Each structure stands twice: as C-alpha cells, then as structure tokens.
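Below: protein 1.
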Amino acid sequence: QFRHSFARMMVYHDEGNTDSARGFLLSWQTGNEMQLLRLAVDPLHQNKGIGSQLMEALLKESQELLTLEVRESNKKALKFYEKFGFQKVATRQHYYSDGENAILMETCTQF
C-alpha cells in the first residue's frame, strides 16, 4: 500500500521529536478522489487531538471526494468521522475476514 505513487502517508510526532510517531494515516489519491485507508493513534496518546489534526490535514489535501470504510461495530470511529462531515452511503456486507460488515462513508471537500 505504501509503494504506489498515489499513496500518501502522514505521521504525527511530538514537536521536536521525530523519533517516535504518535499517530499516522495512510490514504490513496486517484484523480479527484481520495480514500482513507488507515488512521491510527497510539493508545497512550488518544483523546489529545492527534487524530483530529491528522484528519484536518487530510481534508485540506483532498481534491473533492474523500471516502473510507469502517467496521460497523466501531461506534467510536463512526462518531469521529461524522464529526468531520462524513456520511454513511452504503454497507459492504461481510467485508472483513471475520464476516463483519463495513460502513462506506464519504464527504465532499470542495463545493
């Protein structure tokens, strides 16, 4: 996922300390659509705004449409993405290897 020319990675470090990452996100940009593939924050550093800062940076980079899939059971993530304007647009049945459904979400970043 990282080796493609359309892959983008953002890493959050503590100011002045690039040796340890506190969070990251991975996305793919194809044309005017960007897909968020991964967003993670170190559990010891959650609820400090790191995920929000990464998401805000991604939204600024996005050309028009930003999409993602999230586990149907991940209520915390669903609420987080809704805070940034994402809306549920579809359910992907049995998307994950354990059979759980994925919720497809999207937001338009250019109006």
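Below: protein 2.
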Amino acid sequence: AFKLTWSPDGMPQAHGLSVPFEADDQTVGKIRSYNANTGYGFLLPDDRKQDVYFKQSDLPEEMHEVGAEHIVGCSMQCTIGLQKDGKPVAKHMLLLAWADQA
C-alpha cells in the first residue's frame, strides 16, 4: 500500500510504502474503531499502516458482551485472512490487554 502524489513537474511519487499482508500472517495491534450496532471494527497493526477489518464473531468470547467503549484501544493478536479483493481481515483474535491496561 502507498500514497501517490504528483510532483510539480508532473511525475508520480509514491509515499508511505508498506508491505501488504499475506494470508496467515500474524500481527499485533490495537482496535482503532468498533461499532456494536453493525458488529464490525478495525484493528490498527503496530507494524503496518493498513487497517485490518474484523467482525464481532472474530473477537474472543470474553469481549462479546462488553460495549464498544471497552473494546476500542484493546491490544490484540490475530492471524490475517484475505478477502476476495485482497484486503486483510482478522481471524483467530486473541486479547493481549484491555484498553485501560494497554
């Protein structure tokens, strides 16, 4: 993934390059956002700039009944799966620390 800008002389320039995820990669990061009404959220990995999508059903059991205010900021470990479009999705999520302990 990268951000593309154009130089004053019209040449393309890539910025913020990051290595894309591959299936079965492991990552650690913090939950950036979560919507309990829709049942999905995004994890911000510590080592990448690309958000990782997750569903409530992928959260550990102990997190299913708590509100979004307790989920955002939690440190998690997960295995990466890839959607059909190649975007990463979290699988086998493991809680490392609650938000107030992270």
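The chain has a mean pLDDT of 91.
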